[in-house]
Amino acid sequence: MGSVVLSLDAELGWGFHDLEDPPENRVESGRRGWSVMVDLLDEFDVPATWAVVGHLMLTDCDGRHADHPAPPGWFRRERGSWADREELRFGPDLVTDVLEADTDHEFASHSFSHVLFGDERTDRELASAELRRATEIADDWGQTVDSFIYPRNDVAHREVLAEYGVSAYRGKSPTRDGVRGVFDSTVRDQSMLVQPELDEYGLVNVPASQFLFGFEGPARTVAESIWTDPMLEVARRGIDEAARSDGVFHMWLHPNNLTSERDDRRMRAILAHLERRRSAGDLTVETMGEVAERVHRSRGIGAGGTDERAAAGTN
Ligand SMILES: [Zn+2]
Ligand SMILES: [Zn+2]
To answer: Which ligand has the minimum distance to the alpha carbon of residue 151?
Structure first.
Protein backbone atom coordinates (compact mmCIF):
# COMPACT_ATOMS: atom_id res chain seq x y z
CA MET A 1 0.00 0.00 0.00
CA GLY A 2 1.38 3.38 -0.97
CA SER A 3 0.61 6.90 0.10
CA VAL A 4 -0.41 10.24 -1.30
CA VAL A 5 1.21 13.57 -0.40
CA LEU A 6 -0.26 16.96 -1.29
CA SER A 7 1.95 20.03 -0.95
CA LEU A 8 1.11 23.69 -1.52
CA ASP A 9 3.44 26.60 -2.26
CA ALA A 10 1.67 29.35 -0.30
CA GLU A 11 3.08 32.69 -1.34
CA LEU A 12 0.50 35.34 -2.37
CA GLY A 13 2.44 38.12 -4.17
CA TRP A 14 5.86 36.75 -3.22
CA GLY A 15 5.75 34.12 -5.95
CA PHE A 16 5.83 36.91 -8.54
CA HIS A 17 7.40 39.98 -6.96
CA ASP A 18 10.66 39.61 -8.90
CA LEU A 19 8.97 39.29 -12.30
CA GLU A 20 8.92 42.20 -14.72
CA ASP A 21 5.29 41.57 -15.58
CA PRO A 22 3.51 39.45 -12.93
CA PRO A 23 0.53 37.43 -14.27
CA GLU A 24 -2.37 39.43 -12.93
CA ASN A 25 -4.97 36.66 -12.62
CA ARG A 26 -2.56 34.51 -10.59
CA VAL A 27 -1.50 37.41 -8.35
CA GLU A 28 -5.11 38.35 -7.70
CA SER A 29 -6.18 34.73 -7.08
CA GLY A 30 -3.78 34.03 -4.23
CA ARG A 31 -6.18 34.80 -1.41
CA ARG A 32 -9.22 33.27 -3.04
CA GLY A 33 -7.37 30.04 -3.89
CA TRP A 34 -5.92 29.82 -0.39
CA SER A 35 -9.35 29.97 1.25
CA VAL A 36 -10.86 27.52 -1.24
CA MET A 37 -8.07 25.02 -0.51
CA VAL A 38 -8.44 25.33 3.28
CA ASP A 39 -12.18 24.64 2.91
CA LEU A 40 -11.79 21.76 0.42
CA LEU A 41 -9.10 20.04 2.49
CA ASP A 42 -11.34 20.31 5.55
CA GLU A 43 -14.31 18.97 3.62
CA PHE A 44 -12.38 15.86 2.56
CA ASP A 45 -10.22 15.74 5.69
CA VAL A 46 -6.98 15.64 3.70
CA PRO A 47 -3.91 16.89 5.61
CA ALA A 48 -1.48 18.78 3.36
CA THR A 49 1.98 20.31 3.62
CA TRP A 50 1.57 24.09 3.48
CA ALA A 51 4.91 25.69 2.60
CA VAL A 52 4.47 29.33 3.54
CA VAL A 53 6.63 32.31 2.54
CA GLY A 54 7.84 33.67 5.90
CA HIS A 55 7.24 37.31 5.05
CA LEU A 56 3.50 36.61 4.89
CA MET A 57 3.50 35.94 8.62
CA LEU A 58 4.65 39.46 9.46
CA THR A 59 2.07 42.16 10.13
CA ASP A 60 4.18 44.99 8.74
CA CYS A 61 7.70 45.85 7.58
CA ASP A 62 9.73 48.83 6.42
CA GLY A 63 9.81 47.58 2.81
CA ARG A 64 13.62 47.75 2.85
CA HIS A 65 14.89 44.83 4.93
CA ALA A 66 18.30 46.49 5.06
CA ASP A 67 19.71 43.75 7.30
CA HIS A 68 18.75 41.04 4.78
CA PRO A 69 21.60 40.23 2.35
CA ALA A 70 19.38 40.08 -0.77
CA PRO A 71 20.54 41.55 -4.09
CA PRO A 72 19.92 45.29 -4.54
CA GLY A 73 16.33 45.96 -5.52
CA TRP A 74 15.01 42.59 -4.32
CA PHE A 75 12.25 44.25 -2.27
CA ARG A 76 11.62 46.98 -4.84
CA ARG A 77 8.08 45.98 -5.69
CA GLU A 78 7.15 46.07 -2.03
CA ARG A 79 8.08 49.73 -1.90
CA GLY A 80 6.84 50.44 -5.42
CA SER A 81 3.70 49.27 -7.17
CA TRP A 82 2.65 47.03 -4.26
CA ALA A 83 3.28 49.61 -1.54
CA ASP A 84 -0.46 49.90 -0.95
CA ARG A 85 -1.19 46.21 -1.64
CA GLU A 86 -0.63 44.87 1.88
CA GLU A 87 -2.91 41.92 1.08
CA LEU A 88 -0.30 40.63 -1.40
CA ARG A 89 2.64 41.03 1.00
CA PHE A 90 1.13 39.96 4.32
CA GLY A 91 -1.21 37.11 5.18
CA PRO A 92 -1.20 36.29 8.91
CA ASP A 93 -4.99 35.84 8.68
CA LEU A 94 -4.57 33.13 6.02
CA VAL A 95 -1.74 31.38 7.86
CA THR A 96 -3.95 31.32 10.96
CA ASP A 97 -6.71 29.68 8.89
CA VAL A 98 -4.31 26.85 8.02
CA LEU A 99 -3.08 26.41 11.59
CA GLU A 100 -6.60 26.48 13.03
CA ALA A 101 -8.20 24.28 10.37
CA ASP A 102 -10.00 21.13 11.54
CA THR A 103 -7.55 19.11 9.46
CA ASP A 104 -4.10 18.59 10.92
CA HIS A 105 -1.93 20.22 8.26
CA GLU A 106 1.84 20.38 8.29
CA PHE A 107 3.24 23.90 8.53
CA ALA A 108 6.31 24.14 6.28
CA SER A 109 8.53 26.83 4.77
CA HIS A 110 8.76 28.27 1.28
CA SER A 111 11.71 30.55 2.32
CA PHE A 112 11.45 34.10 3.70
CA SER A 113 11.14 36.18 0.54
CA HIS A 114 11.01 33.63 -2.31
CA VAL A 115 14.70 33.94 -3.15
CA LEU A 116 15.77 31.52 -5.92
CA PHE A 117 18.32 29.28 -4.25
CA GLY A 118 19.98 28.13 -7.49
CA ASP A 119 20.46 31.68 -8.77
CA GLU A 120 24.10 32.72 -9.06
CA ARG A 121 23.38 35.74 -6.86
CA THR A 122 22.20 33.48 -4.03
CA ASP A 123 25.31 32.75 -2.04
CA ARG A 124 25.46 30.75 1.14
CA GLU A 125 24.98 33.89 3.25
CA LEU A 126 21.69 34.74 1.54
CA ALA A 127 20.46 31.13 1.66
CA SER A 128 21.24 31.06 5.40
CA ALA A 129 19.50 34.40 5.97
CA GLU A 130 16.36 33.12 4.20
CA LEU A 131 16.30 30.04 6.44
CA ARG A 132 17.13 32.00 9.57
CA ARG A 133 14.32 34.55 9.09
CA ALA A 134 11.82 31.85 8.10
CA THR A 135 12.61 29.70 11.14
CA GLU A 136 12.67 32.71 13.52
CA ILE A 137 9.25 33.85 12.36
CA ALA A 138 7.91 30.29 12.55
CA ASP A 139 9.23 30.11 16.10
CA ASP A 140 7.41 33.36 16.96
CA TRP A 141 4.28 31.55 15.82
CA GLY A 142 5.07 28.45 17.88
CA GLN A 143 5.87 26.42 14.76
CA THR A 144 8.88 24.41 13.63
CA VAL A 145 10.10 24.02 10.05
CA ASP A 146 10.51 20.32 9.28
CA SER A 147 9.84 20.55 5.55
CA PHE A 148 11.03 23.06 2.97
CA ILE A 149 9.85 23.72 -0.56
CA TYR A 150 12.29 25.58 -2.78
CA PRO A 151 10.93 28.63 -4.63
CA ARG A 152 10.35 27.52 -8.25
CA ASN A 153 11.70 24.12 -7.23
CA ASP A 154 15.21 25.47 -7.59
CA VAL A 155 17.03 22.95 -5.39
CA ALA A 156 20.39 24.21 -4.08
CA HIS A 157 22.23 24.92 -0.80
CA ARG A 158 20.80 21.77 0.76
CA GLU A 159 23.46 21.86 3.48
CA VAL A 160 21.90 25.10 4.77
CA LEU A 161 18.53 23.35 5.18
CA ALA A 162 20.20 20.64 7.23
CA GLU A 163 21.88 23.30 9.42
CA TYR A 164 18.50 24.79 10.26
CA GLY A 165 17.00 21.47 11.29
CA VAL A 166 14.91 20.81 8.18
CA SER A 167 14.13 17.11 7.55
CA ALA A 168 12.49 17.06 4.13
CA TYR A 169 12.40 18.95 0.85
CA ARG A 170 10.47 18.50 -2.37
CA GLY A 171 12.76 17.40 -5.18
CA LYS A 172 12.20 17.62 -8.90
CA SER A 173 9.59 15.44 -10.53
CA PRO A 174 10.74 12.62 -12.81
CA THR A 175 7.60 13.33 -14.90
CA ARG A 176 7.62 16.09 -17.47
CA ASP A 177 5.31 19.05 -16.84
CA GLY A 178 2.24 19.88 -18.81
CA VAL A 179 0.95 18.11 -21.87
CA ARG A 180 4.08 15.93 -22.22
CA GLY A 181 3.58 14.62 -18.69
CA VAL A 182 -0.05 13.77 -19.50
CA PHE A 183 1.20 11.89 -22.56
CA ASP A 184 3.84 10.01 -20.53
CA SER A 185 1.27 8.92 -17.98
CA THR A 186 -1.78 8.13 -20.09
CA VAL A 187 -0.27 7.00 -23.39
CA ARG A 188 3.11 5.64 -22.37
CA ASP A 189 1.74 4.39 -19.04
CA GLN A 190 4.75 5.73 -17.19
CA SER A 191 4.61 5.39 -13.40
CA MET A 192 3.62 8.50 -11.43
CA LEU A 193 5.00 7.19 -8.14
CA VAL A 194 8.20 8.46 -6.52
CA GLN A 195 10.48 6.99 -3.88
CA PRO A 196 11.61 9.24 -1.03
CA GLU A 197 15.37 9.17 -0.59
CA LEU A 198 17.77 10.12 2.16
CA ASP A 199 20.47 12.43 0.78
CA GLU A 200 24.06 12.98 1.90
CA TYR A 201 22.98 15.75 4.31
CA GLY A 202 20.47 13.55 6.13
CA LEU A 203 17.58 15.29 4.36
CA VAL A 204 14.75 13.27 2.87
CA ASN A 205 13.97 14.19 -0.72
CA VAL A 206 10.24 13.71 -1.32
CA PRO A 207 10.18 14.27 -5.09
CA ALA A 208 7.14 15.74 -6.78
CA SER A 209 5.06 13.45 -8.97
CA GLN A 210 2.73 15.93 -10.59
CA PHE A 211 2.09 19.65 -10.74
CA LEU A 212 -1.70 19.81 -10.85
CA PHE A 213 -1.87 22.96 -13.00
CA GLY A 214 0.75 22.25 -15.63
CA PHE A 215 -1.67 21.99 -18.52
CA GLU A 216 -3.63 25.23 -18.86
CA GLY A 217 -4.77 27.73 -21.43
CA PRO A 218 -6.40 26.88 -24.80
CA ALA A 219 -4.97 23.33 -24.85
CA ARG A 220 -6.80 22.53 -21.61
CA THR A 221 -10.07 23.90 -22.97
CA VAL A 222 -9.79 21.81 -26.13
CA ALA A 223 -8.88 18.67 -24.16
CA GLU A 224 -11.80 19.16 -21.79
CA SER A 225 -14.22 19.62 -24.65
CA ILE A 226 -13.38 16.26 -26.19
CA TRP A 227 -12.31 14.29 -23.16
CA THR A 228 -12.19 14.85 -19.45
CA ASP A 229 -9.92 17.24 -17.54
CA PRO A 230 -6.49 15.77 -18.43
CA MET A 231 -4.91 16.73 -15.11
CA LEU A 232 -7.75 15.08 -13.21
CA GLU A 233 -7.18 11.98 -15.30
CA VAL A 234 -3.46 11.93 -14.46
CA ALA A 235 -4.14 12.55 -10.75
CA ARG A 236 -6.65 9.67 -10.68
CA ARG A 237 -4.08 7.39 -12.27
CA GLY A 238 -1.47 8.42 -9.72
CA ILE A 239 -3.84 7.89 -6.79
CA ASP A 240 -4.91 4.49 -8.14
CA GLU A 241 -1.30 3.50 -8.64
CA ALA A 242 -0.48 4.43 -5.02
CA ALA A 243 -3.39 2.24 -3.95
CA ARG A 244 -1.98 -0.74 -5.88
CA SER A 245 1.69 -0.55 -5.00
CA ASP A 246 4.30 0.90 -2.68
CA GLY A 247 5.60 4.36 -3.27
CA VAL A 248 4.38 7.91 -3.01
CA PHE A 249 2.16 9.90 -5.34
CA HIS A 250 3.10 13.50 -4.59
CA MET A 251 0.93 16.18 -6.15
CA TRP A 252 1.43 19.90 -5.69
CA LEU A 253 0.02 23.29 -6.57
CA HIS A 254 0.00 26.93 -5.60
CA PRO A 255 -3.22 28.23 -4.04
CA ASN A 256 -3.06 30.94 -6.72
CA ASN A 257 -3.54 28.29 -9.41
CA LEU A 258 -7.21 28.26 -8.40
CA THR A 259 -8.15 31.24 -10.53
CA SER A 260 -11.75 30.21 -11.28
CA GLU A 261 -14.49 27.77 -10.35
CA ARG A 262 -13.29 25.43 -13.06
CA ASP A 263 -10.04 25.05 -11.09
CA ASP A 264 -11.98 24.52 -7.85
CA ARG A 265 -13.91 21.72 -9.55
CA ARG A 266 -10.66 20.02 -10.57
CA MET A 267 -9.40 20.07 -6.98
CA ARG A 268 -12.74 18.88 -5.61
CA ALA A 269 -12.80 15.95 -8.04
CA ILE A 270 -9.21 14.97 -7.18
CA LEU A 271 -9.83 15.14 -3.44
CA ALA A 272 -13.11 13.23 -3.76
CA HIS A 273 -11.30 10.43 -5.61
CA LEU A 274 -8.55 10.40 -3.00
CA GLU A 275 -11.10 10.24 -0.19
CA ARG A 276 -12.88 7.28 -1.85
CA ARG A 277 -9.64 5.35 -2.17
CA ARG A 278 -8.60 6.10 1.39
CA SER A 279 -12.01 5.13 2.79
CA ALA A 280 -11.71 1.80 1.02
CA GLY A 281 -8.49 1.26 2.99
CA ASP A 282 -6.33 1.26 -0.12
CA LEU A 283 -3.85 3.99 0.78
CA THR A 284 -2.79 6.54 3.37
CA VAL A 285 -2.35 10.30 3.12
CA GLU A 286 0.91 11.64 4.52
CA THR A 287 2.56 15.03 4.88
CA MET A 288 6.14 15.55 3.72
CA GLY A 289 7.21 15.64 7.37
CA GLU A 290 5.57 12.28 8.02
CA VAL A 291 7.31 10.76 5.01
CA ALA A 292 10.65 12.04 6.32
CA GLU A 293 9.96 10.59 9.77
CA ARG A 294 9.08 7.24 8.23
CA VAL A 295 12.26 7.18 6.14
CA HIS A 296 14.41 8.22 9.11
CA ARG A 297 12.82 5.54 11.28
CA SER A 298 13.44 2.84 8.69
CA ARG A 299 17.12 3.89 8.60
CA GLY A 300 17.44 3.97 12.38
CA ILE A 301 17.80 7.73 12.45
CA GLY A 302 16.09 9.64 15.26
CA ALA A 303 14.05 12.83 15.01
CA GLY A 304 15.99 15.90 13.89
CA GLY A 305 18.35 13.85 11.77
CA THR A 306 20.64 12.59 14.54
CA ASP A 307 22.05 9.29 13.53
CA GLU A 308 21.61 6.81 16.32
CA ARG A 309 23.94 4.36 14.63
CA ALA A 310 26.68 6.97 14.74
CA ALA A 311 25.92 7.65 18.40
CA ALA A 312 26.19 3.92 19.12
CA GLY A 313 29.58 3.85 17.44
CA THR A 314 28.54 1.35 14.79
CA ASN A 315 28.83 3.73 11.90
ZN1 LIG B 1 8.75 43.54 3.67
ZN1 LIG C 1 6.79 29.70 -4.96
So the answer is: 2
pLDDT (tens digit per residue) in 199-235: 999 999 999 999 999 777 777 777 676 677 889 999 9
User: Is pTM, for the whole model, over 0.90?
Assistant: yes
The alpha carbon of 63 and the centre of ligand 1 are apart by a number of angstroms equal to 4
A 10 A CB-CB count for 226 gives 6
Q: How much distance in Å is there from the Cα of 81 to the middle of ligand 1?
A: 13
Question: What residues form DSSP beta bridges with 205?
Answer: 169, 197
* Under 8 Å between Cβ of 2 and 249: yes
Ligand 2 centre and the CA of 11: distance in Å? 6
